[in-house]
Each structure stands twice: as C-alpha cells, then as structure tokens.
Design brief:
This protein is of the alpha+beta class. The chain contains three helices and nine strands. The strands form two sheets. Strands 5, 6, 7, 8 and 9 form a five-stranded mixed beta sheet that branches. The chain is globular.
Amino acid sequence: MRRIALVTLVVDDYDEAIRFYTEALGFRLAEDEPRPDGSRWVVVEPGAEGAGSGLLLAQGKNESQRARVGDQTGGRVGFFLHTDDFARDHARMRAAGVTFLEEPRHEPYGSVAVFEDLYGNRWDLLQPAA
C-alpha cells in the first residue's frame, strides 16, 4: 500500500508550532528528535498512530525558507483536516483561540469552515457528507 506519510510545513519555531498543533488543533506529538545539524525531526499527527498522514514541522533555516512561513500555498487553502464531528471540533478549536475566516457552511460535499494556523496558512475543517 502506498500513501503520503508526511508533508513538510515550514515554521518559525518548533516549540511554538508544537503547542499550536497539539493544544489548539488536538494533534498528537509523534516524534521530536534532535538532529546532528542542530535542527529537530518534529512530527505531529491529527489521529491515532499510523492512521494517516502527519506534518513534519521544519524550522526555516534561511531567508528563503523563512519567507515562506505562513504562505506556503500562495493564500489558498492548502491543508484539509477531516473530522467525524464538525460541531464538536469547531467549538473546541474556537475555544482554543483558532481563527476561523468564515462561519461554518453546509455544502453538498459536507460541513466546512476555513481557518488559519498560527502562521496564517489556510486550512479547511471538513466533515465529509455521508
């Protein structure tokens, strides 16, 4: 079986990003290991271990990488967080301070609302239609 295991997300600060993804979005910290070059291998996952893709949080090392923090997809929604209970997760995330850019919508494909991560990357919180 083939699957995309990790997607790199360039961040300003490892610990700040870990806090946001684990506390505000409810992800779990799967890995946080130091690397010989002084960087860290940091992986957060939205579900149970082995249940899907994760994010490799990579601290920008140079001007070019740092310039992409928060705008990795040119302002488009670039990440899609599926849920099995939209109302529950939307309420929990709002209470944790997550910025939603719109009110929830109910579309033929499911319930959805666009939110920003701590750097401004746009995400869909989405409960697909049954």
